[in-house]
Every structure is written in structure tokens, then in C-alpha cells.
Write a structure and sequence with these properties.
- By secondary structure, the chain is an all-alpha fold.
- The chain has a domain of about 35 residues.
- The protein has 3 helices and no strands.
- The longest helix is centred in the first third of the chain and has 16 residues.
- The N and C termini lie far apart (about 75 Å).
């Protein structure tokens, strides 16, 4: 039993040593270390440089605009939301389609 364990343990040690991400001589990380996390963050960011509407809520706002919105809600004077078209054209492989961007 112990010889079988040794036969499996020795290659496992060499395989794990090859996964080292730190250069042993310089102590620096491997050049691609962390790239997967950076990529995942990038594709999950909707708009890294958003443009905020004039007079709208800004990051770090003091809540005054939120208070006004709650006041409009309570007095039934809510502003109608503006619709936006987020896609153009039609998708699918049939003819016709919905004619989205026509």
C-alpha cells in the first residue's frame, strides 16, 4: 500500500511545483497572474465611464434628489420613464423577423 502511495505522490509533487506563480529567483509574480480576474471584471462592467444627466443624481449625492423623487411618488406626480432602444435590427435566421431597426 505504501509503495502505491509513493508512486502517486512523487508525480503529484512535481505537477504541483509546476503550478507555482512566483519566480523563485526574483520573487516576482508570473506575467499573466491575475489576468482572468481582470478580464472578468472588464466584461461585467457595463460602462466604465458613465455620463450622468444634468441635474440627475450623481455619485456621492447628498440624497436631496432622492427625497424629491419620494415626494413625487407620495403625491402621485411621478415622472414618466423615458424609453430607450437598446438593440438595432432583427436577429434570427428566418426571413421576416420583427423588423426592429427598419
Amino acid at each position: 500500500m505504501s509503495s502505491k502511495l509513493l508512486v502517486l505522490a512523487v508525480p503529484a509533487v512535481f505537477l504541483l511545483a509546476s503550478c507555482d506563480t512566483v519566480n523563485q529567483s526574483t520573487g516576482a509574480m508570473a506575467p499573466g497572474f491575475g489576468e482572468a480576474v481582470k478580464y472578468d471584471n472588464a466584461i461585467q462592467t457595463i460602462n466604465p465611464e458613465p455620463v450622468y444627466a444634468q441635474g440627475g443624481a450623481q455619485p456621492g449625492a447628498n440624497g436631496e434628489l432622492g427625497q424629491k423623487a419620494v415626494e413625487r411618488y407620495r403625491t402621485d406626480k411621478v415622472k414618466a420613464p423615458q424609453s430607450e432602444q437598446t438593440t438595432m435590427g432583427s436577429s434570427g435566421s428566418g426571413g421576416g423577423g420583427s423588423g426592429g431597426g427598419r
